[in-house]
Fold this protein.
Amino acid sequence: MPGRNWRNVADWLVRWLWPLAVAGLLGLTLLLLHHELRAFHYRDIRDAVRAIPASRTAWAFFLTVAAYAALPGYDAVALAYVGHRLSATRTAFASFIAYALSQTLGFHLLTGGSVRARFWSLWGLSAAEIASAVSFASATFVIGLLFMAGLALLLEPAGTARLLHLPFASLWPLGLLFLAIIGAYLWWSLGSRRPLTLLGWTIPVPSPRLALAQLGVAAVDWVLAAGVLYVLLPSPPPFGAFLGAFLLAQLAGLVSHVPGGLGVFDTLMVLLLAPHMAAPQVVSSLLLYRVVYYFIPFGIGLLLLAGSEVSRSRTEWTRLVGRALPPLVPYLLGGATFAAGVILLLSGSTPPVHSRIASLQHLLPLGVIEASHFAASAAGAGLIVLGWALTRRIDAAWLLTAILLALGMVASLTKGLDWEEAVALGVVLTVLLPSRRVFYRKAALTGEPFSPEWVVAIACVLGVSLWIGFFSFRHVEYSSQLWWRFTLHGDAPRFLRASAGVLVVLGSFGFARLLRHAPVTVTLPGSAELERVVPLVRDCPDGSAGLALLGDKALLFDEENRGVLMYGVAGRAWVSMGDPVGTPEARRALAWRFRELADAHGGWTAFYEVGTDDFPIYIDLGLTLRKIGEEAIVPLDDFSLDGPNRRGLRRRQRDVQKEGGSVEVIDAAQVKPLLPELRRISDDWLESKRTREKGFSLGRFDEDYLRRFPMGLVRVNGRIVGFANLWSGHDRAELSPDLMRYSSEAPVGVMEFMFTELMLWARAQGYRTFNLGMAPLAGFEERKHVPLWTRAGALLYKHGEQFYNFQGLRTFKEKWYPEWHPRYIASPGGLAFPRVLTGIATLIAGGLRGVVAK
């Protein structure tokens, strides 16, 4: 128990360490920003924003257009790298949407990479080409960052050192190091033709032309991006020194994983530019920079994405929503909804434009304005939670998000004529409404697992909005009477009441999660559930579905009783035995429900002994597939004992028949009277093998279980000496023996004899295949570049005979010349995988004791 507690603590630390580190970094930046702005008021920043000349804003817009026009260069170079060129229009279209979304939402590989994969796959790129192109574009981004930083540090070595407040007279050695790295990269592309192998990945050498194109595209991108902010500053330092500081702040924002580097990048720029201009001037320029360079392109990108889908025919739209969009849309809409909530919260923490409030007083009573301010902030709190729920594809989240977005739009107008907010929320609502079918899951919001990243993100947004509010109203004397002051220009009281409402909304949600039902206890099925699963097993072509009737695994049914998933739990390992059973739609729904059930209990999801048919489902679940062996399938259409290859089988058949051996197949209804005799044989077999009953992935001697199947019996002179219950696939697709036992009185080779006779009987009965079961670790190749798991499996297969008869089992099954079909385990990777394997071994052995002892 203490060991388990320590493991739980370690798991908790691993899951929460990085999100809490990001939160701590954001908190530190707010403290630094608070220190820099301690002598200023909100109105100073507001006045500084208004003081920015229209000409500088126009230049910022022009440079932003130029910057986004240059960004498709990243994609063009990447597509040329993989040898699949697209038209300039298509390249620019996908690139703009990808960068408009990823630069604002962050998580570039998830957001931008998903957008590229979405469009590029429609335009003919393979999955391998997409992965290589996205990776190459990311490499170009990093290479460009090093290149421009090196140039900046060489061109303005002293100015950059002073701007960064470093105790060095010059930074030219660092700049020279960066450029040396770029030079080595160019030399590699010029002189090498051997691909680079790094951490198991083979990276082809780009041509010198492509390598130079990478530098050119990145240089133009970074110069234009920095230029947008540079032209908004009233008295900036020399551009070379500014560029070095800009790149450093952008790098810090990227490393922090905060969307758009919000807060981290801004605080660093305030600190670095402090010698040249007052903090309010920098903050005002940064605010306008974010609107121009991030938020406006983000809104346009969302509209373009929605328009590109809605413009298709209704049939095509339905197909895409059902197949191509689900991996992408939930995350994009979740991020956009979260951003909409942030907008409402920050708006509620800052004073409105007084001229607009004055206009409202002639149209609306004060009570409506007060209620609208409160409702907008409460809607913002709800939206930052629903952003997470949308990523989980919850159907109720779609409806609630649509309602809160509409409420936020109305409240934005009635609380202060904030039409800009209303437009931003309207853009998100426009994209959300056509995507109804993407959100199909029936689940309770309070019952879903909440990741540490989302918890910390919500806490950070709440902290930032409160900080901005108290900064905006730092001149106000706070007292208890302030809560109950209702006046047209009572901005501070409205902020306090709205903040209290936000805390109530988020606190109520958290409290509801604390009071949600206790974790579901995994219960084994009763007779009613077992009877419910019988038709599903009967209609399944895979005979191993009969394991659902063993009664040692929990059963998870879909809502329409079209499928079932059997699973067990050992520690944190939640293991499905085989693929879900049922229709394709039911299997997909059950896999997702099982994943969510495991997540809700902090468990790891695994699917054991699965085939290749449902690979797309497991990939969508984020699981890693590893081969665990091969299954021997004997085709029965042309099976016979004729020919030289079957000489050994014929000899074994004659030897056993000479001793009076024969095989008989009886129906399930005839099994019950024979159970006492079969029990004697089973106990004899267990004792002679010095082993105990197993389970989970194979049958055990259970009378209720065995009575449900036909039985193959081996008799010697009329006396039963061996048996095997038989799984039968739907429409005689497959016959497979399950529990196989024989007594010490059985002749030598009785199992080989029984299998051969059963195959002959199955062929005569019209069965198409005979399943001999899996050979663990079979088919593993010991090659240099295969994954570590495959190499370890091949080594164990080759040298692990003292632990298990790996090679002998495969050799035994090879006697019937079967077709070998690979079987896999789908599970989390990393350090969780060994513990999942331990959990599976525990389930099969019936407990930890069975793992270490027979």
